[in-house]
Structure formats: C-alpha cells, structure tokens
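Re-run with default settings, no changes from the original entry. Doing this only to confirm the output is reproducible before filing.
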Amino acid sequence: MSAVHVLYENEAWMPPLRAALDARGVRFEEHLTTGGHLDLASVPPQGVYLNRMSPSAHTRAHQGGVRMLQQQLLHLEAHGRRVINGSRAFALEVSKVAQDVALRAAGIQTPRTIAVVGGPAALRRAARAMELPFITKDNQGGKGLGVRRFHDLDAFDAYVDSEEFVPGPDGVTLLQAYIQPPHGFVTRVEIVNGRFLYALKSATAGGFELCPADACALEDTFAPREDIGADDPLVAAYIRMMRANGVDVAGIEFVEDADGRRYTYDINGTTNYNRDVETARGLFGMDALADLAAREAASICKGTAA
C-alpha cells in the first residue's frame, strides 16, 4: 500500500486519526505544516495526501501554514498526486465568501451576507445596509471565534472603533443576518466521500464557539439529531455541492428559523468528530476518513503495480 501523507498544523487533533489509521494497518507519514519552503522543481513522493489544515490555524500562530499549504496543494496536484480535500476544497475552507458562492450555485439557501474590506468607516457604512440583529465573523475563521451579535448600531459602532475589533487574517470581515434558532441549536451534517454519516445538533446557549472535536467540546453541547438522514433533500444538495467543488470530507452547518426555513452558513473541510456523540450512533467519522485514505492508497498501489 502506498503511504498516506497527513498535512496538519494542530497536534491536538491528531491522536484520533493516528489511532484510526493504525487500526487499519495504514502506513502514514505526518507533515507538520506551519511554514517553510517549497522547491517547485521537486517531485513530491508517491501516495495519498490528506489535508488536515484548519482555517483557525492563525489562532495558534500557524497562519504561515495556511499560506504554505495553498502552494503545496497546487504543486501536488500538478504532479498528479491524489489529495483528499485538495486545492478547490481548501479554497472553500479558508473563505466563507467562496462557501456562500458555492452554496448558492447549488441552490442552497444562505443568510444574507455583506463582505467588507476596510476599517471602521467601511464597516459602519455596510452595517447601515443590514437589518438588525446581525452578526460579524471573519471570512477565514474557525470554531466561531470572534463572532459577535449586534442588536443596535451604536453598539456595533463602538465595537469596530475599539481595540476589541481585530480583523481576520485575510482582512475580510463579514456582516451576516442573524437567524434565531427557535429551539436553541444549530445542525451540523457530517459527510465523507459522498456518504452521509450523521447529523449533530449543537446548543447555542453558550455562544458561537461550536467546535465538536473531543479536544474542545463542552459537556452537553452536542447531541445526535435523529430526524435528519441521507434521504433529506438538504443532505442530497450538500453531497452534490461537495462533488461539484472537489470536497471529499465536510461538516456542514445550518440553522432553522421559526418558520422552518434552513440557512446554511459554514462548510468545515477539516471536520473533527465527537466520540461520545458518535458512540450513540455507532458511526465514527474518523474511521470513515481513515477508510477513505486506505482505499485511495490501495488504489494507487494497484495502479503502480499494473
């Protein structure tokens, strides 16, 4: 079997993946990607490349890894290497504007959003075009860090004029309509290689930092959502959107309003999984990811042998 090359920047998220690959006897190499150099005349090793770079890397001082990986993915693909969540998928990972464009193209409803580049004056002008309440978020973000809700413009103006406001790593700030979830949760749908795994509801009472990974999950925040399955029309639309954009693995989040309208607002390519929630369903996302990597590596090995 060809090697699986894991490109990552967050050590805390690696143990479950290592265990899943080890359990399958998969030979893998880890590549900590936080910066460095890339010789464009080099030929990358054979094997499958698994992209585990997070858009929240900048919160761990690893934004250089994001920029380096963007170049590495292009280099790998130019040499015909199989990349799970390659350059097209990663372009969505690090841009919520790109996500909105892809979702709309697939006929999936999204919240009204304005992208703003500029300082406080530009943000104040854009805010006057939004209905209240609205939220702010970084275009490249993760875990909901920095997301804030505003019910009046005076509070918003004070925020963007204060030291609390720090633009995201790409300098793009989003103003987005706030959709009030009537039952106090949003929903995350996990999909691997075109297969629906499960839906997860995330309680919003504690705020917007909704990381489902074992390393950062809070007790009683996450639970299975049994009423959503593979036959749900929205799930089918997600799978079509993923195929159209080269996304192999994703956790996609939506919120329902009081009238049952569903608004999709986030695509998480470097999705993580909560073991307690998965145990209740008997489905394990990291196992599905490891299975995909193993199949792709075996396929490459057979092709080489032929």
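The two ends are 13 Å apart (CA to CA). The longest helix spans residues 285-305.
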